[in-house]
Amino acid sequence: MAMPTKQEWTKRAEQKVKRTQLFINGKFVDAASGKTFDSINPRDGKLITEVAEGDAEDVNRAVAAAKASFEAGVWREMAPLDRKKLILRWVELIHAHAEELALLETMNCGKPISDSLNVDVASCANNMQWYAECIDKLYGEIAPIPRDSVALIEREPMGVVGAVVPWNYPLIITSWKVGAALAAGNSVVLKPAEQSPLSALLFAELATQAGLPDGVLNVVPGFGPTAGGALGRHMDVNKLAFTGSTEVGKYFLKYAAESNAKAVSLELGGKTPHVVLGDLPDVDAAASAIAWGVFYNAGQTCHAGTRVIVDARVEDELLEKVREVSKSIMPGDTYDPATAMGTIVDRTQFDRVNEYIKIGESEGATIHTGGKPVEPVPGGVFIPPTIFKDVKPGMRIEKEEIFGPVLGSVRVTSEEEAVRIANDTQYGLGAALWTRDVSKAHKIARQLRAGTVWVNTFDRSSIVTPFGGFKQSGTGRDRSLHSIEGYTNLKTTWIQL
Ligand code: NAD
Questions:
Q1: Is the pLDDT score of 130 beyond 80?
Q2: pLDDT tens by residue, 168-204
Q3: DSSP assignment of 427-451
Q4: CB 270 within 8 A of CB 469
Q5: Distance 266 CA to ligand 1 centre (A)
Q6: Residues sharing a CB contact under 8 Å with residue 23, sequence separation 6 or more, in sequence order
Q7: Is residue 247 among the annotated active site residues?
Q8: Of 6, 317, 72, 40, which Cα lies nearest the Cα of 198?
Q9: Which residues have CB under 6 Å of ligand 1?
Q10: pLDDT averaged over every residue in the chain
Q11: What is the pLDDT of residues 63-114, one digit of tens each?
Q12: What is the rounded distance in angstroms from the CA atom of residue 419 to the CA atom of residue 275?
């Protein structure tokens, strides 16, 4: 299908958004309080629509619906083949509504429309398809015990899963959690981020159209401390899957401790280093991967490669080439299919990123490129690719997650120093290494403390590889069969013969 033009997307965006209420027990309903909140388009600062503001009472309703559907067995007891077919029908509907979903994602998050369509919606559909296809391929085990007995080891769904997700990749992260939780047979209550509730509501409606029984997937838009907190503290939620900041992730451990000791999995922040040795195989390839790896999605990626830790002998050449590549990733109108970089998600985050740029300058780092906001659409919150040189270990811009298109370069003179600086962070989501020496590649990859280490590439990923963090980047994994394990309890059934 041909990509609609910028004019066409702009016209479509002016139409009234259809789904703005909570989605509970298969129906769109108002919040119990009747309250709504404004959903703002970061492209131009204009109101998109008002969205129902879920609170503790609404979370109670949604959890009750999820629990009732779980206890009735309408989903978990359905034959695996039928559950698979149902999710595959849902995937077809996601494809059929791809442009609508993509536009909602772009309007909420400020992503370029081409990325929303070709990356976010496409990955969401692919992920749901992959989880669907797992459903009738998961086997239990028989334990090697004495011959007078048989012990079955099976994975059972946990019950009600609460999923609290961020705004940077709403549909992708939702599909990781909802796909895995439903594949395992659970019922789900999803709380999207307040910045990006709209695509989740259509996603859930399509599930119902595909035949997902009422109550199996519920969506409660609302704010973190109210709706998110209520889900985290709920006595009938058996597992809470969270993606977001490290600070908020820790609240969920507290909520679990203060309520029913529910299982918690956390995908948190990052400060991914690129360790670039003097013998890197291809400076052009590294520069391209480094630029796209930090400027894609305007830097709002948890594993964005924000730190280059580079051999002093190659730093100048590398940074020059990164700057060259970044010229092709300049911010533009999010409705233009040619745009490579969109906005920052909202004005709060925009102010935060600009503040970090000021901090970097005051700490003594030098701006190599960018640094000043641009406004390709009036009223929008756009920051161009920004590169800092002369960054020193321990500076705030080297330590803290900025979550914007800001790269910092630290010059080093030995591999030991590079690895030490790479690991000297509270985070451990990703790390990259650039070298042509295969022995060094293996040795240093082992030393890097991160959930994913890329060697001579960056940000390659797939639904078949696990994703998650070491240290304060979290616990638990999204993607791959390992993620499904995180939504199950292991049960042993011991039978005396
Ligand atoms: P955030 O932690 O502020 O919000 C995430 C979610 O938590 C939202 O739904 C929000 O409403 C909710 N929330 C906020 N405060 C809460 C509270 N007190 N109690 C309960 N819920 C609360 O994060 P964000 O700003 O939306 O997203 C950016 C962060 O997410 C970054 O730190 C980024 O690194 C991280 N992230 C991590 C991954 C990963 O897989 N590791 C992926 C994407 C984003």
A1: yes
A2: 999 999 999 999 999 999 999 999 999 999 999 999 9
A3: --SEEEEE-S-HHHHHHHHHHS-SS
A4: yes
A5: 10
A6: 29, 201, 204, 205, 217, 218, 219, 220
A7: no
A8: 40
A9: 164-168, 173, 191, 193-194, 223-225, 228-229, 232, 243-245, 248, 251, 267-270, 302, 401, 403, 429, 469, 473-474
A10: 98
A11: 999 999 999 999 999 999 999 999 999 999 999 999 999 999 999 999 999 9
A12: 7
What is the distance in A from the centroid of ligand 1 to the CA of 34?
25
Tell the residue nearest (CA) to atom 16 of ligand 1. Answer: 224
How far apart CA 198 and CA 209 sit, in angstroms, is 17
> Residue 243: which region, alpha, beta or left (left: phi > 0; alpha: psi -120 to 50)?
beta
Residue whose CA lies nearest to ligand 1 atom number 38:
302
DSSP 4: P
1 falls in which pLDDT band (50, 70, 90)?
confident
For 240-280, the pLDDT digits (tens) are: 999 999 999 999 999 999 999 999 999 999 999 999 999 99
Cα 372 to Cα 350: distance, rounded to the nearest angstrom: 11
DSSP-assigned states of every residue in 191-248: E--TT--HHHHHHHHHHHHHTPPTTSEEE--B-IIIIIHHHHH-TT--EEEEES-HHH
Overall average pLDDT of the 54-59 stretch: 98
**Quick one: average pLDDT of 8-34?**
98
Catalytic residue among 109, 134, 302, 401: 302
User: Do you know the residue count of the chain?
Assistant: 497
Ligand 1 center from residue 53 Cα (angstroms): 18
pLDDT digits 0-9 by tens, 242-253: 999 999 999 999
Block residue for tokens 């039978």 = 495
Query: 349 CB contacts (<8 Å, ≥6 apart)?
Result: 300, 381, 403, 404
Q: Which residues pair with 46 in a beta bridge?
A: 41
Burial class (CB in 10 A: 0-12, 13-18, 19+), 394: exposed
Coil, strand or helix at 250: helix
Q: What are the pLDDT digits (tens) for 410-446?
A: 999 999 999 999 999 999 999 999 999 999 999 999 9
What is the C-alpha separation between 305 and 238, in angstroms, rounded? 34
